[in-house]
Design a protein that fits this description.
Layout: E1 2-6, E2 12-15, H1 20-31, E3 36-40, H2 46-57, E4 61-64, E5 68-72, E6 84-85, H3 90-101, E7 107-110, H4 121-129, E8 133-137, E9 140-144, E10 151-155, H5 160-169, E11 177-182, H6 188-200, E12 206-209, E13 212-215, E14 226-227, H7 232-245, E15 248-251, H8 264-270, E16 274-277, E17 281-285, E18 293-295, H9 303-312, E19 316-320, H10 332-342, E20 346-349, E21 354-357, E22 368-369, H11 374-387, E23 391-394, H12 406-412, E24 416-420
Parallel strand pairs: 2-15, 3-14, 6-7, 10-11, 18-19, 22-23
Antiparallel strand pairs: 1-23, 1-24, 3-5, 4-5, 7-9, 8-9, 11-13, 12-13, 15-17, 16-17, 19-21, 20-21
């Protein structure tokens, strides 16, 4: 699918989509509860559907409403239907593997796109040390055997999803376990999201020091109903638009959110954005952005849209600790470098940094590509709308991975959007 964007005046109020990170966690906690839970304010993006379909294969019953799902979980995962298709969802894959080990069955998981190319070595190393066989080939991953309690040591600079995956499963073991995270510990906020969600379902873990988590065994998830908060990583796209146009507001963002991407507002303010936070919404005023230095170690998903903000700013913007962007649905650094260059943006990179020198954004002569990456597609849309150029984006359907109504929502803000099948 391709989308054409033409210059238009942007204004209005938009509700932040539900947090994909929190929705994944709520769905899995509900599946482990052995009871009935209603998860409301949920968006059925491809990633969330991957988690829902996976727990259905574990025996959960789903009652789906337009923006909610009621999950009735079995008291024990006895009969497993597999292979499990994780689509392109890294969260689904990495969160599920430790949980699936508890079935004591041989389970096969596979994915699509670049999912099976993304790093899984952390589990490949850990699982055999703790009673679970792990094998991977070009088509998928197979695990067999229940994880045992004990000491788990893993790197903190690959993905916090491995830590969260262990956190979901280890409380269900008979004896306590300890998770040691080797420095540098990046994306710590995502681990706190997991612990916060588990607390809502009656599960606890305790920090013994800055990098060591003690996980009591013998715990049980308790059924509860949960409302998913708004997503700061998705709000970043209209937020950057709002700094250019003004008169744009975003509803549904919790000021006390634990999301690492909640740093968005501080980063934009640091770059010169003016906005008025209220209890129910954040309203953006027209602002002139200036270059700044940004640490992405705890908010990597903001990388692509902050590259766009840098392109729209005066001066130089440098993104540090950006290396993990190369291991996402696309190599997001390479993808954004290719596409922004087509639009005349001065952008260069190393393995771990991205430097953008703000200046005029020019009409591209070539078709832009999403690189099959939702965050690249949405970032390119913001670049076009904010700079007033016409673009055509190939692979625009990639937004379904996290924000299925993105193009319609942009149109509601006044964007001139034409969709080509």
């Amino acid at each position: 699918m391709q989308v054409t964007l033409r210059p238009a005046l942007i204004h209005g109020t938009l509700a932040a989509p539900p947090s994909k990170s929190m929705a994944h966690r709520a769905v899995l906690c509900a599946a482990l509860s052995g009871g009935t839970c209603r998860i409301s304010h949920i968006d059925f993006s491809q990633d969330i559907q991957a988690s829902l379909m996976a727990i259905r294969q574990l025996g959960c019953a789903l009652d789906v409403e337009p923006d909610a799902v009621t999950i009735t979980a079995p008291t024990r995962f006895s009969t497993l239907i597999h292979p499990i298709d994780c689509y392109e969802s890294g969260s689904t894959l990495r969160f599920l593997m430790p949980i699936l080990s508890l079935t004591e069955q041989k389970v096969r998981l596979h994915g699509r796109g670049r999912l099976m190319e993304r790093p899984q070595q952390v589990y490949a190393d850990l699982f055999p040390q703790h009673g679970c066989a792990f094998t991977q080939d070009a088509d998928g991953i197979e695990i067999f055997g229940a994880l045992t309690p004990g000491d788990y040591t893993l790197p903190g600079n690959v993905s916090s999803q491995f830590i969260s995956g262990l956190l979901f499963a280890l409380p269900l073991l008979d004896e306590p376990s300890t998770i040691h995270v080797q420095a540098p510990f990046e994306s710590r906020s995502y681990v706190e999201l997991t612990r916060s969600m588990q607390a809502a379902f009656g599960i606890t873990s305790i920090w013994q020091d800055a990098n060591t988590l003690f996980v009591p065994g013998g715990q049980r998830y308790q059924p509860c109903d949960y409302t998913v908060e708004g997503d700061y990583s998705q709000a970043a796209y209209p937020a950057v638009l709002g700094t250019v146009y003004g008169n744009l507001a975003i509803r549904g963002l919790r000021a006390d959110s634990l999301q690492g991407d909640a740093v968005l507002l501080r980063i934009l303010q640091q770059a010169g954005a003016a906005f008025a936070p209220r209890v129910d919404k954040v309203t953006f005023a027209k602002s002139t952005l200036h270059g700044t230095e940004i640490d992405l170690s705890d908010c990597p998903d903001l990388g692509p849209i902050l590259m766009v903000a840098g392109a729209l700013a005066k001066g130089t913007t440098v993104l540090h600790n950006a290396g993990r962007l190369r291991l996402k649905e696309s190599d997001r650094i390479e993808a954004m470098e290719q596409e922004l260059t087509k639009c005349g943006v001065n952008i260069t990179s190393t393995q771990d940094t991205v430097t953008i020198v703000g200046g005029p954004v020019t009409q591209p002569q070539d078709l832009l590509s999403s690189h099959n990456d939702h965050r690249v597609a949405m970032s390119l849309a913001v670049l076009a709308l904010a700079s007033g150029i016409s673009v055509r984006i190939d692979g625009a359907e990639a937004v379904k991975k996290s924000w299925p109504t993105f193009w319609n929502d942009m149109a509601r803000l006044g964007a001139n959007v034409m969709v080509h099948a």
